[in-house]
Amino acid sequence: MADRILELDGINVFYGAIHALRDVSLHVNAGEVVSLIGANGAGKTTTLATICGLLRARTGGVHYAGEEVSRVPTHRLVERGLVMAPEGRGIFPNLTVEENLKIGAYARKDKPAVAADLAQAYDIFPRLAERKRQKGGTLSGGEQQMLSIARALMSAPKLLLLDEPSLGLAPLIVQTIFETIDRVNEQGVTILLVEQNANIALKHSHRAYVIESGSIEIQGASAELRNDPRVKAAYLGEA
Amino acid sequence: MHRTLALLVVGVSLAFGVDWFLGEFIEEYVVRIINLCGIAIILAVSLNVINGLCGQFSLGHAGFMAIGAYVSAYFTTTLRVLNTETGETIVRAPLFDGAWGFVPALLVGGAAAAAAGLIVGVPTLRLKGDYLAIATLGFGEIVIILLTNFDSVGAARGLPGLPNYASSFWILTFAWICVVGSVFLQRSTFGRALIAIRENELAAEVMGIRVARLKVMAFIYGAFFAGIAGGLLGHLLRTISPSTFGFMKSIEVVVMLVLGGLGSLTGAIVGAIVLTVLPEALRDVEQQAKLPGIRMVVYALVLILMMIFRPQGIFGQRELSLKLLRRVLPARLRGGDSETKP
Predict the structure, then answer these.
(1) Mean pLDDT, to the nearest integer, of A159-181?
(2) Which residues does B19 contact at the CB level (< 8 Å), separation at least 6?
């Protein structure tokens, strides 16, 4: 239990009358990359939004670093190292790359360490260093995704939530993004990854959950799930 | 802190110098236009923080102006009663005595407007786009309707006989404070966070920005200066009535911003000046052409053409700075090859 950085305990989330998440339980161990895969509208983004306090679960608990956090506001969670890189990249198009990154460190009080992290972010993403004076909106899709991840890293996360990092990107770029995700994980950041692209998500995660119509249907080690006939048929496009 | 103080001293001395110069050498009509420009700058620059930086479309600026104007007028008129026997003024609150009492009166007016900003902002700022615009418009109308129906503030007749306190000196001083304050704000972490909210509210939220609170703070800031501008305008016109602060006034300020370039501070200033001077300048055209009323047609035409050919406004989101000048001016004017890349 002690190394479980995140645990969802049977959460139910509603949008008005619509039951969006049904008894969703999952956990993430410190140091892991866990992926949550599923089709459009299955409840992946809703799950992330509930974890980071943008939505409230009607029943069930969200535990982060051993504490019940389902009533804790988002900005407090960011201060404690639970950070999300939102879907559709969600960068600030009219701010420069560097300003985007500085906003990432908005919630932090340890300003000297921020400068070091900025240097490190440029180290991980050399493309961003080349473009730091450029406006975020002028970057290519892949670069914007990198900026989104780099910006989230500026908050010094312990647990990073990534919402559809492959969305709308060319396969080669997706490959680069996921290699970066591996590197970020190697530096000690735990990652919960939400993806429609099951193939690549399963290759780059330790464990995985499959969500369908708001409830977790399959779970297990990613390597095993890649051979699971149900996953193969529904998500990997194999017979 | 030293820098802030130095800037304040510079501003006050500038205002003092300009005030003396205007009084000595410039005809009254032009001085009046300059004063109106100063007030327009306060309005546009403060609304730019709400609409431009933070991206919250407010149409309630005139409502905040009205509150500032009426509250400050209360302190400069109602609290002062003429003793008919001796001919002396009885001042009920010594702080608000004389021309210097104008500043505390203005500040109280600004504070009242800011308080209204807080009260309006908390429930309405969860609304987005058009919905927020309509809600703030509704607020402005409520203020006007209340003022029109309370006899104690003169109802539809308004309040006459405000003292002649809004000199060029005070108008320019407050315009300076508002502009310099907004420059600081724009460059601060707070200002960047406001822009982040405008650009992507969800992303701002998950970066730990307290979106709701910051929006309300931007609203309060804007409302405060709108209140100051209202107080200045009241004491410049010497008479205030609810119709002075109708929703067309709010629209006028929004048009200044859009014309200058929404989100650009220098754009707001230029927009304010252009839209104040243009109708006056067109008076001459009207007389020459012997077509009374044509100036408002030209005025509207200028706006329409502007929106067709330059919808982002004069400045877009850019600021007028030395850097921009260097880029825009032809190379030979800049000294050619010596220019290094930024």
Answers:
(1) 89
(2) B167, B168, B169, B172
Contact B96, B79 (CB under 8 A): yes
Report whether B158 contacts B70 (CB < 8 A): no
Q: Domain boundaries in chain B?
A: 2-247
pLDDT at B341: 39
Look-up: residue for tokens 């407050």? B174
Q: Is B310 helix (H, G, I), strand (E, B) or coil?
A: coil
User: Which of B111, B107, B105 lies closest to B76, judged by CA?
Assistant: B105
Please tell us whether the domain made up of A4-89+157-235 is placed in CATH 3.40.50.300. Answer: yes
- Pick the closest to residue A160 from A183, A130, A193 (CA basis): A193
Nearest residue, CB atoms, A75 vs list B203, B210, B263? B210
Look at A20-24, B59-63, B96-100, B253-257 and tell me which has the smallest mean pLDDT: B96-100
- B276-325 per-position pLDDT tens digit: 888 888 887 777 877 777 777 877 888 888 888 887 877 777 777 666 66
In the stretch 169-228 of chain B, residues with CB closer than 8 A to chain A read: 189, 192-193, 195-196, 199-200, 202-210
Q: State the complex-level ipTM.
A: 0.84
pTM above 0.90, yes or no: no
CA distance B71 to B80: 14
Q: Is the pLDDT of residue B99 over 80?
A: no
**B2-247: CATH architecture:** Orthogonal Bundle (1.10)
| Domain boundaries of chain A, sorted by first residue | 4-89+157-235
- If you measure CA to CA, which chain A residue comes closest to B197? A92
